[in-house]
User: Which sequence fits this backbone?
């Protein structure tokens, strides 16, 4: 796997968010080969994990599960919509399957938010009836930095093909003051990821 771009030294500052971000992209050397043959991809429900120490003590496991499930499906829809919107300005080389169809196919095979992370990637591609799946992982935590609480969201967006092979990964971490809405920050990450979707890249034929 080739490191295409490495941005850990880049700092993005949003004055209205009081946050900063670090990101990196990894891509297979021959990704363009897969890009040429992939006709349809699917975005599956988003995997969300929260550092338990960051949660209120009075919240129950059931409440936490429901919260994460609702958030996962909302963000899945949002990521799908953002990709479609970006597609208006720079057309993708692969179609993105409607998430409602994706979820219906997954449900048909007894796959949902609670067990999707345990399913082999090649099976997800097969069940979704596509050429590749896009998976998003969020890990949310709250830390003390300079004696002040800070929200941290670590994320990964990954693309796997029908053989379960990892083709592309986008990492992003956002730091923000504790009073900032984490859902807003997650949406911000997805917006950035949509712009970097490798299926937007022009397919260039090798020179003879």
Assistant:
């Amino acid at each position: 796997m080739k490191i295409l771009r490495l941005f850990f030294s880049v700092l993005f500052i949003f004055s209205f968010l009081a946050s900063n971000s670090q990101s990196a992209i990894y891509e297979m050397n021959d990704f363009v080969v897969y890009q040429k043959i992939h006709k349809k991809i699917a975005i599956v429900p988003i995997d969300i994990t929260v550092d338990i120490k960051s949660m209120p003590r009075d919240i129950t496991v059931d409440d936490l599960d429901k919260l994460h499930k609702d958030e996962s499906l909302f963000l899945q829809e949002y990521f799908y919509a953002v990709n479609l919107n970006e597609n208006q300005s720079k057309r993708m080389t692969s179609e993105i399957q409607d998430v409602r169809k994706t979820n219906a196919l997954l449900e048909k095979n007894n796959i949902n938010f609670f067990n999707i992370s345990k399913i082999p990637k090649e099976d997800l591609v097969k069940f979704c009836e596509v050429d590749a799946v896009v998976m998003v992982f969020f890990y949310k935590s709250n830390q003390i930095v300079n004696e002040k609480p800070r929200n941290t969201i670590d994320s990964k967006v990954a693309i796997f093909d029908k053989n379960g092979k990892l083709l592309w990964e986008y990492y992003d971490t956002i730091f923000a003051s504790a009073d900032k809405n984490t859902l807003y920050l997650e949406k911000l990450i997805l917006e950035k990821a949509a712009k970097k979707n490798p299926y937007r890249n022009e397919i260039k034929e090798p020179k003879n």
Notes: Residues 48 and 109 are 21 Å apart (CA to CA). The radius of gyration is 18 Å.
